What does this fold into?
Amino acid sequence: MTREQQSIGESPAPPSFDKTVQDDLSGEIAAHVERQPGDAVKCRRIDGDSYRCNWWAAQSTGGYDNPGMYGLLVTTHRVRKSQFLRVTKSPIRGLVIQVVGDRQK
It folds into this structure.
Protein backbone atom coordinates (compact mmCIF):
# COMPACT_ATOMS: atom_id res chain seq x y z
CA MET A 1 0.00 0.00 0.00
CA THR A 2 1.39 3.37 -0.97
CA ARG A 3 1.40 6.35 1.37
CA GLU A 4 -1.06 8.06 -0.93
CA GLN A 5 -3.47 5.11 -0.61
CA GLN A 6 -3.05 5.15 3.18
CA SER A 7 -3.80 8.86 3.36
CA ILE A 8 -7.09 8.58 1.47
CA GLY A 9 -8.15 5.28 3.08
CA GLU A 10 -7.85 3.05 0.02
CA SER A 11 -7.04 -0.58 0.56
CA PRO A 12 -4.62 -2.38 -1.71
CA ALA A 13 -6.02 -4.40 -4.61
CA PRO A 14 -6.68 -8.03 -3.72
CA PRO A 15 -4.10 -10.48 -4.99
CA SER A 16 -5.00 -11.95 -8.35
CA PHE A 17 -5.48 -15.69 -8.42
CA ASP A 18 -5.08 -18.07 -11.30
CA LYS A 19 -8.45 -18.34 -13.12
CA THR A 20 -8.41 -22.16 -12.93
CA VAL A 21 -8.31 -21.95 -9.12
CA GLN A 22 -11.33 -19.64 -9.05
CA ASP A 23 -13.53 -21.57 -11.50
CA ASP A 24 -16.34 -23.47 -9.80
CA LEU A 25 -17.24 -26.41 -12.04
CA SER A 26 -20.19 -27.63 -9.94
CA GLY A 27 -22.84 -26.97 -12.59
CA GLU A 28 -20.82 -28.57 -15.38
CA ILE A 29 -20.08 -31.63 -13.23
CA ALA A 30 -23.75 -32.10 -12.29
CA ALA A 31 -24.73 -31.94 -15.97
CA HIS A 32 -21.93 -34.32 -17.01
CA VAL A 33 -22.14 -37.23 -14.52
CA GLU A 34 -24.24 -40.32 -15.21
CA ARG A 35 -27.62 -40.54 -13.59
CA GLN A 36 -30.60 -42.84 -13.42
CA PRO A 37 -34.07 -41.74 -14.57
CA GLY A 38 -35.59 -39.45 -11.93
CA ASP A 39 -32.26 -38.56 -10.32
CA ALA A 40 -31.49 -35.00 -9.31
CA VAL A 41 -27.73 -34.42 -8.99
CA LYS A 42 -26.43 -31.73 -6.64
CA CYS A 43 -22.73 -30.95 -6.74
CA ARG A 44 -20.84 -28.59 -4.42
CA ARG A 45 -17.27 -27.38 -4.48
CA ILE A 46 -15.43 -28.20 -1.27
CA ASP A 47 -12.04 -26.63 -1.96
CA GLY A 48 -9.81 -26.15 -4.98
CA ASP A 49 -10.53 -29.04 -7.34
CA SER A 50 -12.45 -31.12 -4.75
CA TYR A 51 -16.21 -31.58 -5.10
CA ARG A 52 -18.98 -33.62 -3.49
CA CYS A 53 -21.87 -34.88 -5.60
CA ASN A 54 -25.11 -36.33 -4.27
CA TRP A 55 -27.63 -38.21 -6.40
CA TRP A 56 -31.14 -37.62 -5.00
CA ALA A 57 -33.91 -40.06 -5.91
CA ALA A 58 -37.55 -40.54 -4.96
CA GLN A 59 -38.29 -43.31 -2.50
CA SER A 60 -41.31 -45.57 -2.56
CA THR A 61 -44.39 -44.11 -0.90
CA GLY A 62 -45.88 -47.57 -0.28
CA GLY A 63 -45.21 -47.38 3.46
CA TYR A 64 -46.90 -44.00 3.88
CA ASP A 65 -50.37 -43.69 5.35
CA ASN A 66 -51.36 -41.76 2.20
CA PRO A 67 -49.45 -43.34 -0.70
CA GLY A 68 -51.65 -41.43 -3.17
CA MET A 69 -49.99 -38.16 -2.14
CA TYR A 70 -47.78 -37.18 -5.08
CA GLY A 71 -45.35 -34.38 -5.66
CA LEU A 72 -41.80 -33.48 -4.83
CA LEU A 73 -41.81 -33.79 -1.07
CA VAL A 74 -38.59 -33.57 0.87
CA THR A 75 -39.49 -36.67 2.85
CA THR A 76 -39.84 -38.79 -0.30
CA HIS A 77 -36.36 -38.06 -1.67
CA ARG A 78 -33.16 -39.52 -0.31
CA VAL A 79 -29.51 -39.44 -1.29
CA ARG A 80 -29.04 -42.76 -3.10
CA LYS A 81 -25.38 -42.15 -3.98
CA SER A 82 -22.67 -39.77 -2.82
CA GLN A 83 -19.17 -39.28 -4.21
CA PHE A 84 -16.17 -37.10 -3.56
CA LEU A 85 -14.58 -36.07 -6.83
CA ARG A 86 -11.37 -34.41 -7.93
CA VAL A 87 -12.15 -32.46 -11.09
CA THR A 88 -10.01 -30.43 -13.45
CA LYS A 89 -10.81 -28.93 -16.81
CA SER A 90 -8.50 -29.60 -19.73
CA PRO A 91 -8.70 -27.61 -22.98
CA ILE A 92 -8.22 -30.87 -24.89
CA ARG A 93 -10.05 -33.49 -22.78
CA GLY A 94 -12.76 -31.32 -21.19
CA LEU A 95 -13.74 -32.30 -17.64
CA VAL A 96 -11.33 -34.79 -16.08
CA ILE A 97 -13.18 -36.46 -13.20
CA GLN A 98 -11.50 -38.75 -10.67
CA VAL A 99 -13.60 -40.47 -7.99
CA VAL A 100 -11.93 -40.00 -4.61
CA GLY A 101 -14.57 -41.61 -2.40
CA ASP A 102 -17.64 -43.63 -3.21
CA ARG A 103 -20.58 -44.22 -0.89
CA GLN A 104 -23.60 -46.19 -2.09
CA LYS A 105 -26.85 -45.90 -0.16
